[in-house]
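Dear Dr. H.,

I hope your travels went smoothly. While you were away I took the liberty of generating a structure for the chain from your last submission, since the lab meeting agenda had it listed for discussion. I wanted you to have the full record in hand beforehand rather than looking at slides cold. The sequence, exactly as received, is reproduced here:
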Amino acid sequence: MDSNSNIVVVTGFGPFRQYLVNSSWEAVKLPVVYQKAKEQVFKIWKTLQPLLTVHVGLASSAKAIIILEQCGKNKGYQEMDACGFHPEGDCCMLDGPEKIESTINMKTLWKNISVEGIDIIFSRDAGRYICDYTYYASLYYGNGRAAFIHVPPLSKLVTVDLLGKALQTIILEMLKQCGEEREYDGSCKKKMGIS
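The corresponding predicted structure, in token form, is as follows:
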């Protein structure tokens, strides 16, 4: 699949457990439902053919930490989604490999980036729930050209503004890894929902 080098897609998720406002949905939203999220991801890759798709999800246990996820796992999805379902065989893709690594080197990104007011860490386990499932599907459909960022819940310390700036910094660094160093003017930032 050829990528459209002018498009980067960023997704977030809707309400999750006790979080009526999911901090990741302030940008864009996917349903917290395995099948629907997978269908949306497929549609993104098929219709937009982006250079990169960046998914943003809520890490409810994180306080003021952003987590850069390196890979998605195919199996182990036993927890029920928002509609009370889990995937057939507890698996994302019946014919898929056990795990898929992102073409973005998250460890390098983590070492080279800092955002004032929030810590950033590197992970190889996105949690075997909708986030990991969505990430795996995107890596599968996008031949590894996807990334996943877990963000903490919104709080007095972690504001929408802080998260927006942190995500902007992280995504711009990802694009540098993709070889897409470009000048991002205000109109592009506005389209990305970044001020």
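Two observations you may find useful: Residues 180-195 have pLDDT under 50 and may be disordered. Residues 5 and 17 are 36 Å apart (CA to CA).

With kind regards,
E. W.
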